[in-house]
Design a protein that fits this description.
25% of the residues lie in helices and 33% in strands. The chain is of the alpha+beta class. It has one domain. A six-stranded antiparallel sheet has the order 2-1-4-5-8-9, sandwiched between helices. A two-stranded antiparallel ribbon has the order 3-10. Helix 2 runs antiparallel to helix 3.
Length: 220
């Protein structure tokens, strides 16, 4: 079994267009150290705890679903993840029109080594981090101790995410979703941006999604 890891990742900032917040694209892929790769892979993949699965759809045909089309482009050309990530971020910015939607860091990651059954080994992860928390750091030297507040991300909480597994492309893939924001306009993530509907597949709905986390933990 190959090691589960992020093979490439792009990081952008997507503000709320309705509130005239900025849209900032990085200029290149984000470089991850081995330790950071392990930490982020565990954070992202381990955040999907629901057994419910979704598929992309569009009333005019799957090819009209922009996220579906761009994710397919990444699967076909993983070396061009950065270029397609900019398009995915642009599309998200275009869907941040409700004044209650929070801006946040937007991440597109190509994850390999999933090892789910015999058919699913790679996925594209789309993640949006909207909320930061205050943590305390404790430091000491020969003269004494110091306590400082630092704003950061709680690795036990992912605000919004979609793990799009490279399985049954012609049916809209198989997608796991996280959406923990319950404010007005929050449905934009699933309904407006991703444009998903529930997957009608009793086999996968009864599988324990924690298998992803167990597979990962077994490798570290």
């Amino acid at each position: 079994m190959s090691e589960m890891k992020i093979s490439s990742m792009a990081l952008h900032y997507v503000g709320n267009q309705a509130n005239e917040e900025p849209f900032v694209c990085s200029k290149k892929l984000f470089t991850l150290s081995e330790d950071m790769n392990t930490l982020l892979t565990e954070y992202f993949v381990g955040s999907f705890k629901s057994e419910e699965r979704f598929v992309f759809h569009d009333d005019m045909g799957l090819e009209n679903n922009r996220v579906y089309r761009l994710v397919s482009d990444i699967f076909d050309n993983p070396g061009m993840l950065y270029d397609f990530s900019v398009d995915l971020a642009t599309h998200l910015y275009e869907n941040c029109q409700h004044p209650k939607i929070k801006g946040g860091d937007f991440i597109v990651a190509h994850i390999t080594g999933l090892g789910i059954g015999h058919d699913i080994d790679e996925a594209i992860g789309l993640f949006k981090i909207e909320n930061k928390e205050t943590f305390l750091t404790f430091e000491h030297d020969e003269e004494g101790f110091d306590i400082s507040p630092v704003d950061g991300v709680n690795l036990r909480r992912l605000d919004k995410g979609a793990l799009i597994m490279n399985y049954e492309r012609e049916k809209g893939y198989m997608v796991a979703v996280v959406d923990k924001t319950n404010t007005q306009g929050a449905s934009y993530w699933i309904d407006d941006y991703l444009h998903l509907m529930r997957r009608q597949d009793s086999y996968f709905q009864t599988q324990n999604v924690m298998e992803l986390t167990r597979n990962f933990v077994a490798l570290i």
